[in-house]
Structure formats: structure tokens, C-alpha cells
């Protein structure tokens, strides 16, 4: 049972054990909507983090956390409808969000409710506002992409600007935001990056051969796709038909090499392409992040696979529990509130060591819902048919708002 008024209760274990104050967390999820197929991995991994923290950290601090998930169907109206009841039932000190509908429904409410929300996805330029209550564990998609572009340009060598083609769509504000950010960065850094063309397609394109051929004629060196797997598949098929598979595609976490490889008929089809984002990459490599996941799997009964959805659950949960941990150390285990948790998040960094390498060191501020400086990305590729990490801790450049 969840605790009632104030979202907390006093629990006592064996005689003489330290009293624990229990706080509630609300988890927004999508078990019956467009992302139902990955949601068990997202929620399973974030629950695993909470279970681990309760056992190995919170017990010593005198704090216990409980989480309850709500099925929002990834729908703005459903989020808005469920939130008053969830807040009344749990009086949570923090809420986990999973996507745009959560931010759209709650970003105006949470400052009044005094409950911060942690997202697992990258951010957007239109959400780049001061004094946030909705926070991202990763920076914006353009932040992640420009880090890759600068890395790739250095790998290529030479002094000329990298010629970039962008596959996008005007069907979604999020998609538009991405290419606007990249176009502004290129305009402000013409010696580093040239956007030869942004191609607008339907949301689920099937054949992009004429458009990709146009990019090839313009000398494109890399193609950025941070929309969806359908766009990656259509672009890769076009490059194959044109005999230009030496031109790589760069994608993000949600349309990753694994996801796009599955959609196109096998990971081998993605040979020589890249993904880049500000969290660990779920390869078979023996990384600290993978070791932490294996601990959750073996000791805390996490059944999710080590994949991008799991890492998204890990990243938001780690930001949450480490912030609550820092807050409890600052004010004591019985005085935690949503407002205290938020204040701690924007004043106390979370180190890469504290996140077991799932995230880089995060330093939030009142300036944005994501850290804007000191960030890094990891880069994955397919080499010889194997999914592998090609570079880690690649610096993210400082971007201006768009």
C-alpha cells in the first residue's frame, strides 16, 4: 500500500534498526499505446534502480522510495486526466515522464504542484526555458548531433566544413526543432558544418531515392536522421540502390542501429553507420554501465534486456535517486519535498561515477531543463557486422538557443 497524507510513513525493521521515511514516486508509462512494445523494459529498469538504491543506499540514509506506474497511452489528454488523481493518491516528491505528451500536459502544472519531472529522452529547443520543473537526463538532439559532426569531421581530416544532409519532416514540432537547431549551428559555424539540404518527408517514408540522389550530387558526407526507423530504412535503401553505402547515416537512441537494423532485415545492413547520444550504448562491451545493469538483473530481478529502452529507464531513475540522495544528505531524511528535490537537482552535480557510466557528469542550473555545458556523447557503429562502441566521452559543443 502507498502511504497516505504527505506521501510518507515511518517504517521500522528489526528492533533497533534506523527508522525509514518512505516517499512516493509517480511513474508515467505507456502500456497500451504506440510505445507499449518497449515500455516493460523502460519501467522495469527504472524500478530496478529504485530497488537497488533502497537496498544499498536509502537504507543507510533512512529513506525508502516507492514507485507506482500509470498508463497514459502516450496521450496528452490521458496524462492531464490521470495526474490530479496520481498527485492526490501519492503526493509524490518526483514524477518520471516518458515523452512529449507528459511535458505538454504537465509543464505548466508542475511548478504550482511543486513536483519535478525527470524525462529519459533528449530535450528540445522549444523547451529551453529558465526555471524548469521538467528536466531531461540528456541535452537536445542537436547538442548530441553536433558533437558527432565535430567528431566525424576530425576523423575525416582536412580543413573544409563537413557537408551534412538532414532527413526530417514538418509533421512533428519535435522533428522541426531538430533541423532548426542544426541549421542555426551550421550558420554560426560555417567553417565546421554546412547543411547542404534539409529534406522534408512524410512521417513514414518508403522511397527516398530521388531525394537522397540529390544529396549525393551536392557532395553530402553524412546524413542525419533523428526522426524514426522508417526514415533510416528508406535512406539506407536509397544509398544502397545508388551504390553510395560509404555515406554514413547518423541516428539517435530511439531509431538506433539495433532498432533500424531490425527494421531493415538485419544488423549487417547497417554496416558503417553511426548512432550518438548522451548515455551509455548497449553493446556487449564490458563497460561499467553494463556491469551495473547485470547487477540489477542478477540481484534485483530486472528482466529487461540491455537495450536502449532499458538505458532510458536507467538514466532517468539514476538522476532521480541520486538527487534524492543528495537532498536527504542536505536536509535530513524526514524533510524531503518535491521543492527540496528540485532545488538539489539544480545545485548539486551528479557525477558519471554516481551513474556507473550510464550518463556523463550532469550539472543542472536554472537556465535550462538540461545541462548546457560539460556534456559528452558516446558513439556506436557496426563494424564487420558487430555492434560496437567506436568512441566515448566525446565533448558536446556549446550551442546557442534556436
Automatic annotation (TrEMBL):
Gene3D superfamilies: 3.40.50.2300. Keywords: Signal. The keyword Kinase does not apply. It comes from the Bacteria. Residues 1-19 form the signal peptide. The keyword Signal applies. Residues 24-351 form the Leucine-binding protein domain. SUPFAM superfamilies: Periplasmic binding protein-like I. PANTHER family: BLR6548 PROTEIN. Belongs to the leucine-binding protein family. This is ABC transporter substrate-binding protein.
Amino acid at each position: 500500500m502507498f502511504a497516505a497524507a504527505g506521501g510518507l510513513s515511518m517504517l521500522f525493521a528489526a528492533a533497533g534498526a534506523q527508522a525509514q521515511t518512505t516517499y512516493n514516486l509517480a511513474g508515467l508509462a505507456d502500456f497500451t499505446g504506440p510505445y507499449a512494445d518497449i515500455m516493460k523494459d523502460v519501467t522495469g529498469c527504472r524500478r530496478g534502480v529504485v530497488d537497488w538504491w533502497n537496498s544499498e543506499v536509502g537504507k543507510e540514509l533512512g529513506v525508502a522510495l516507492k514507485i507506482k506506474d500509470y498508463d497514459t497511452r502516450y496521450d496528452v489528454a490521458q496524462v492531464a486526466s490521470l495526474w490530479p488523481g496520481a498527485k492526490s493518491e501519492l503526493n509524490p516528491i518526483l514524477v518520471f515522464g516518458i515523452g512529449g505528451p507528459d511535458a505538454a500536459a504537465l509543464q505548466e502544472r508542475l511548478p504550482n504542484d511543486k513536483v519535478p519531472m525527470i524525462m529519459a529522452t533528449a530535450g528540445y529547443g522549444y523547451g529551453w526555458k529558465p526555471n524548469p520543473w521538467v528536466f531531461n537526463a540528456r541535452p537536445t538532439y542537436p547538442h548530441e548531433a553536433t558533437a558527432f559532426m565535430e567528431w566525424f569531421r576530425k576523423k575525416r581530416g582536412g580543413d573544409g566544413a563537413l557537408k551534412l544532409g538532414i532527413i526530417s519532416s514538418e509533421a512533428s514540432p519535435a522533428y522541426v526543432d531538430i533541423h532548426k537547431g542544426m541549421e542555426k549551428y551550421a550558420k554560426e559555424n560555417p567553417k565546421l558544418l554546412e547543411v547542404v539540404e534539409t529534406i522534408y518527408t512524410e512521417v513514414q517514408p518508403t522511397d527516398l531515392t530521388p531525394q537522397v540522389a540529390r544529396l549525393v550530387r551536392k557532395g553530402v558526407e553524412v546524413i542525419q536522421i533523428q526522426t524514426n526507423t522508417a526514415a533510416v530504412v528508406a535512406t539506407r535503401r536509397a544509398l544502397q540502390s545508388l551504390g553510395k553505402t560509404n555515406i554514413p547515416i547518423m541516428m539517435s537512441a530511439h531509431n538506433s542501429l539495433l532498432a533500424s537494423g531490425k527494421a531493415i532485415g538485419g544488423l549487417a545492413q547497417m554496416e558503417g553507420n553511426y548512432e550518438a547520444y548522451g548515455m551509455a550504448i548497449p553493446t556487449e562491451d564490458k563497460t561499467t554501465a553494463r556491469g551495473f545493469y547485470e547487477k540489477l538483473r542478477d540481484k534485483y530481478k530486472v528482466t529487461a534486456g540491455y537495450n536502449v529502452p532499458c538505458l532510458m529507464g536507467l538514466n532517468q531513475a539514476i538522476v532521480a535517486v541520486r538527487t534524492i540522495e543528495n537532498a536527504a544528505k542536505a536536509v535530513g531524511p524526514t524533510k524531503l519535498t518535491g521543492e527540496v528535490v528540485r532545488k538539489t537537482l539544480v545545485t548539486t552535480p551528479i557525477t558519471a561515477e554516481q551513474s556507473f557510466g550510464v550518463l556523463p557528469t550532469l550539472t543542472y542550473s536554472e537556465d535550462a531543463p538540461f545541462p548546457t555545458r560539460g556534456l559528452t556523447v558516446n558513439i556506436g557503429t557496426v563494424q564487420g557486422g558487430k555492434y560496437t562502441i567506436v568512441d566515448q566521452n566525446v565533448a558536446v559543443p556549446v550551442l546557442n538557443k534556436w
